[in-house]
Structures are given as C-alpha cells and as structure tokens.
C-alpha cells in the first residue's frame, strides 16, 4: 500500500512537460487523446500484454492529472511481476499525447541453495514440495509459502520448533536473477510428555491412550515406542478416539477442544476435552424396496438384533463389506444385481433407541457384455480368458470377480498386487464391461536347491552329506511355437504350459535326470491337464570288499497323466490319474541292498489317482485357504494269480514285478490371525499321512516305495528304490526310521506342522516373510507298530525370501527336541539335539 500511495502522489504532483513524468496542476486538469503507448524496460514480459493490462489504448481520452493513469499503474502492480513503474510523456502534438510505461521487472528465480540444517537426502524431497521452477518471479508471497512448506516438512518428522530462513541473493551469472539461500534450524524433536483427557467418564483414559496408535507419552519403560509429536498422525489418532466411541454406541461423541502447549523446550503436553453424549441402541430395523429377498432373510444376514449397541461402522460392514461372512451387498452382487444400492435412514430417535429404515434399490440383473485385457506382454489372451469366471452373456457376480482374481494370481505369471479389475456398468443397457489389467512378472526359473544330510561318511546310507539340485523350469511355455525361433526368449512362451528339466546329485553316489511337460488345457477346450515325464537315476554304492563304487542300480521311468477340474462338490476340486512304468536295473548290487538281487531287473507298473481341493490364495506367500489331497497308487495284484513262492524263491523272482498299494493324505491350511492394511500375521497348519501295504499276506511288503523322513525332503541316495522322502526340519536327512529298517524305510508315517508367518517386506523388488515353526513326525516299519502320538519333535525359525533376481529362497534352522535312539546328543550327526540348517533357492531367469 505504501508503494501504491507513493506512485499516486508522484502522478498527482509531477509537472506536465515533454520527456518528463506525467503530472500537472491537479486543480486545472487537461484532457488529451492517447496517440500511442509504448513499454520499455522489460526483459521477460510481453509489451503487448502489459498494454492490454493497463486497459488503455490508442484514441482513448484521458485527463491529466486523472484516475486513468493511476488505475493503469495499479493494474500492472496487481500482477505481482513488476518492481517499479514510471509513466512518461514521450511526445505531445496538440491534444495528442504519447505515453511510455517504464517498468522494472521483479527478479527471477535461478535456483534454491540449501545452506545449513538440510541433509543431502532431504533436498530432493524438499524441492518436490516447493515451487523451484527456474525463471519464476520471486516475491514475498512466494518466499513465505516456501518457508511454510519447508517447516511443515520437518513438522511431519517431529521437529515442531523448526525455524526456516530464506535469503534472496543476486545471481552474478544471470541478469535480473536471484537464488534463494535456505537455512534450516530443526531444533530438537518435540516429544509428548503427558496426554490429559477431560470429560471421559464411561471409558478409561488408559484405553483412550491405547487407541492413539502414533501419539504416545514419553516414558522411561517404553523403550521401543516413539513419543515424538507429528501433527498429521495426531489428527488421525483423534479420529480413532471418535471411531472407538462411535463403536460403543456414543454416536454424538465429539472432541470439543484440544490444546497443545509447551512443557519444556522440546516437550509438550496435550489436553483433549471430550463430550461423550448419550449411548444409543438399535431398536427396529425395517426394509423397504426389497423384492428379491424377504425381509426375514435380510434380517438374518444383517444379524443386528434389537437392543444391540448402536455402531454405524458395524452397520456399514454388514451392509457393504463383511470380511468374516456374507453381507447384504454381496448377496445382491453375487446374484447379478450390480445396480443395487441400500441407504440406511434413521427414521426415529426415541430416547436412547434408534429406528432405521433400509431403503433398497434392486434394479435389474446386469449382464456381462465385453471382457478386455491389458498389460499381458508375454502371456497370450486365451490363457487368461480361460481362467476367468466372468463370461460374456452371463449374469454379473462379484464372487466370480474375486475368484477370477485368485485364478490369475495362482497362475504365477502376474504380480498379484498389480492385478486390477474394473467393472464398467451401463445402467441404460443393463450391462457391464469388465476390464482386467495385469502386470507380467518373471515366472521361468533356474532352480538351485541344497541341503546337508546323510550322516557320517561311513554310514551305509550317508556318504557325501550335501545334496544339490539344478533345474530349469519354464512355467509359461509354448510348444506350438517351438519352430518359430523369433518367439524364443529364451524359449517360446505365453501358452501356459510347463516344461521342467532337472538334475540332482549328492556326488558320485547318486545322480538323477528328469524332464516333464504339462499342458493344463488339453487341446485348449476344457480344463483337462495332460502331462508326460521321464526320469533316469544312477546309484553307485561303495563296496567294502573291493573298496570301490562298483555296486550299481539304474532306474528309468516314464509316466503319462490326465487330470480334470471337477464341478462338484465345487470347482476347487481336481481329479488326476496317471500311469507309470519304472525299470530297475541291478548290477553287482546284492551285497548292499535288502532287495537281495545281485544282477537283474525289476518292473514297476502303477496306476495313481489323486483327488484334491486347493483354494489357497497365493502360491509363494499364502494368507488364507487350504489344500487337501488324497492319493492312491496301485500296482497289479500279481501275488493273487502268479505261482511265486514269496518265502523260498530268489529275490530276482519275487521282485521281478513290484507289488503294492500305497495311500497318502496331505492337508495344508492357512488363516490370517491379525489382518493389517499391508501385512497379515498368518498361521499355517499341515498334516501328512502315508501307508503302503500288500494285497496278500504271503507276498508281504517289499522294499520299494517306502517312506524315509528327515531334513528338507530332498532326494539323495535313497532315491534308488523309489523311496518317498518326507522332510522333517530339525533332523538330518534319512534319520528316520532308525535301526533295522533304516536302509529300506518304513511302511507308515505321519507328520504335523504348525507355523506362524509374518511378512517384513512386500514390495515387488523384495518380499520377505519370517516364520516360527513346530514340527513333529515319525516313521514305523509296520502298521502294527503305528502310534500317531509317538513323534520326534522339532522347533525353529525360518524365512522365505522372494526377489526377481533369485526367486524364492527358503531358510530354516531347526532344533530337535527328541533324541534318536542309540545316538549321543553331543556327537550325533543323524539326529539328536544338534540344530540342523536347510535351504532352497529358486532363481528367476528374467
């Protein structure tokens, strides 16, 4: 205002003369016609724009002295771009007058320079918050705004007394440019000494303090709880207090006043004054506009009885989203009523009781029109479309959307966090378009896994200790494009097929080579899987007489399988059948194995069927769902119709054709104990059972297909006779069963696992989950000795890490709790009390 006043005075009392400022005798004003207007002194501004701002133009009549000139100057000043203005008369011809507006532009910003108090890592964050565009006009408002934003930046970090100084300095490199020098004095972080509540009568103050998750009092015994004051978090904590009162029926509760005042230099106290109001209850709940479902059915789903404490959050959950059960909206949306809405209206408040009328608009069922997909740069559209439960022409269902998202997640080709489903309803047509957006993630793998087990070097079943696996797994393979070399990256991909090549060894004792191929949609029409696999293993045993590895067993096997998704009891069930053949070739093998065949062959023809159900939500880091499988493997009952004497005939005759029936049961269950916004505490429970038997008592149970337990469940030398390996953390590989049947394995086993898992990091670059586990199991050499409670127990800690560069890494460290018989607890290498470490690694190719 001082500048405006001085300009106006200068105009009023200056003299009127050629080449001088506009002035004249205020008592005798003279009228002129503007003959022309020019602008001088500008560097960045457009002269034509400045003339336009003055609201003066050639031909206008003006009075000097008068208001037209002073108003023109004021309009230019109002733009905030000018530091000084003069108006000169450059020429006068009779009544014509020519004006020149001489301007001095405000300085422009060249850069910010952070002087003191600003850490290097904070500078980029600060520049994002303030206007640092080069060439911006610098004025007082801009500087004050920058000061405020910088101060708020540190306020959010707990520096409540931060002082910010910004000094403009001339930039010698650029004409009419300045740089702003920023100095920050953060002071000490402000911490909360005491929080006082006033007016809290029905709720204990200590409960209210607990509801404030981020704003805590400073106490010596609270080592791991931060007491720093952050304004934004404090405001959120006040909302949590209101929400808590509302959940207890105090819907009128309000924080009427709160104050923050200094306790000491870097400590504050907080006073919060509350008006609790009256406690309310639900009374009568009525429904209006419902035709599809009866009021009684809706009452059952809502499940809010008369006299229940009034809770608006509970009401909204039961209406729109109930994480623990069915809600009203899901009933309608799962039945196609996409345009459904419900509006709860309080129609009567009588004392402490509230009557609510549920006003429903049902609309018509929405029909799915178009399905579109984006983001799949590798996976072909048909692979995605065949997994979706939403089909054009059918009724919309929210349950089908949720199921479709789950199916896309379990494919393993896409980032589960980036799967986005967007329904686009068209109320006029009664249809809905659904767009699925995905983001590809690496799915092909190099599998590197290892484990230490097998006992001492002199142990019959030990040798070598370290067992390792190297494999290639292409989870999104395309067989039909195998001849199209331009699609190889590194192999043709996108059709959802699985190709696996694997090599396993624990040194010269044992090597295994395998290859498998699986097509999940055989011929691309129905969810019928087709699989084929081939396997060859070579086992070399140490001969104590010749002191050489000259006892050999080769196993070559092939299998073909078909599986299909069932519709009943629900379509989470699958039935898989396979037919396999294995050829056992023995060379100088009789002195080592309980098989008793020195040189010869055995044949194993088996039919395997598996009935399973799997609705686990995510493969690597599940949070809910279960997996159950019942497996039966059968060989032909040779002993029923052959003439073999299973007591006196040589082993080469008795085991020429392997005979058994084998049963297995596996269950795996996940549930969320504590649900967070981004992370969940998850519990896992698992149970496994296995049994192998014979068709007749005369044949007995042979040495094939038995069970061995311990370690991480990896193959080792025991793979020689088709052994099933059951992992048991905390115990060395192959340590159970012990004693007489340790070389052959048991005929029955059980195992139980309990885990608690918690994710530490959940980003796409790194996913880390830590876990604690308890595990127990045992193997018995006959069903008569089976005791499900006679178990070897172990407990330990582990982690599951997923990185795109390395895949899924599993680390477990288990402590055994029971001593294996005949083992010294201080010297044991196959059990006992020494902890056991196991690991697996699966590295992503891309």
The dominant shape is elongated
Number of strands: 34
Largest sheet entry: 16 strands, antiparallel, barrel
Ends apart, CA distance between termini: 67 Å
Binned, the helix content reads 10-25%
Low-confidence stretches: 1-20, 453-464, 824-832
Work out the helix count. 14
Assess the beta-strand content as a share of residues: 35-45%
Spatial extent as radius of gyration: 40 Å
Q: Mean pLDDT, as a whole number?
A: 83
Could you characterize the architecture of this molecule?
With 846 residues, the protein is α+β, with helices and mostly antiparallel strands. It is 16% helix and 41% strand. The strands form seven sheets. The chain has a 16-stranded antiparallel beta barrel. Strand 22 and strand 23 form a beta hairpin. Helix 1 packs antiparallel against helix 3. The two termini are 67 Å apart. 26% of the residues are buried.
What is the gist of this entry?
This protein has 846 residues and is of the alpha+beta class. It is built from 14 helices and 34 strands.
